[in-house]
């Protein structure tokens, strides 16, 4: 029998499909982060409105409402095929925006229109990635593989944010967007090399769309650990993620009085902590109890975000963002593994699609935050969000205690 590699970080790369998927996801994630930072800063500078900034952020997650449909399409037609189609659209939209920017024909209306189209598709990208990893990876390597896969998005927030800010400042929007579209195109080409087993596609193809969706929703409703995870996912997206996904341009400009480069360092700080957390999960994955980790570090995440919003200087703020990012990974990666393990092959795509539906909490939280900031200020808004989120997380832990806390519960299987 073949010996296992010494490092859990390298074990997933023994699977040929993962050797294609990792760089494909990495390039796509870099492009997404560069795009979000470039357009977020553009909207804030051109309009001067934090409300429009939060509206732009909310549009990035418009497609969460139809994420279960993408999950079902992945179950039917193959997650790799659906992911390729999605990434070809990203590349086309970025190319259009690059051309408009080079011709000096871009304006906020155009940005909002393109953000609306991409926002219908992009939220399902992570669900398709996770489902592909689960399809191609042996079960005993899933936690390590998910941790390694998560580093693609975490590192992108470091590299993508800094690179996006630097390219925008040095070269202007048009040339920066050429880099973005090139990364999308390369990610699409690499995704073509990903391979995944098809085990239930033929049977699913004979079922109706609504019957499939109802079946997946019924499974989640009857699975206590999955239901608890969905509520927690919605909660953190609504009350924790807005502070680090959408509002950082406001914090950089209006709280810390920083430029694009300063914004890039704030985004990179949170991402660096998340990257470290993902590596820790990869190295120690088989010893972790997913449900317990998910709950404990969700509470730590709220506490650290609360500390961040009260930091008086950018330096201390960056330290808190690193710590918050670390806690976020140690909560969200075990959540994804727990959901994939319990869903099995039959419901994997649909469960992850519904998991993406929980991201709809983020645009709700962003729009609410924009409205509150103009009335009570950023610190008061963020404090209320964090306190509410922390109390609600405790309630979720108590409500589903029997499914989440016992060591021998299926949700804590190693």
Strand content: under 5%
How far is it from the N-terminal to the C-terminal residue, by CA? Answer: 23 Å
Q: Tell me about the biggest sheet?
A: none
CATH homologous superfamily placement: MFS general substrate transporter like domains
CATH class: Mainly Alpha
Number of helices: 18
Structural class: mainly alpha
The number of distinct β-strands equals 0
Stretches where pLDDT is under 50 for at least 5 consecutive residues are: 197-207
CATH topology (fold) name: Growth Hormone, Chain: A
Shape: globular
What is the number of independent domains?
Answer: 1
Q: Can you characterise this structure?
A:
This protein has 414 residues and is an all-alpha fold. It has one domain: MFS general substrate transporter like domains (Growth Hormone, Chain: A). Helices cover 79% and strands 0% of the residues. The chain contains 18 helices and no strands. The chain has helices spanning 16-47, 50-59, 67-77, 79-102, 108-121, 125-136, 142-171, 173-191, 201-205, 209-221, 224-239, 248-255, 260-284, 290-309, 314-357, 361-376, 378-399, 401-404. Helix 11 packs antiparallel against helix 17. The two termini are 23 Å apart. The relative contact order is 0.16.
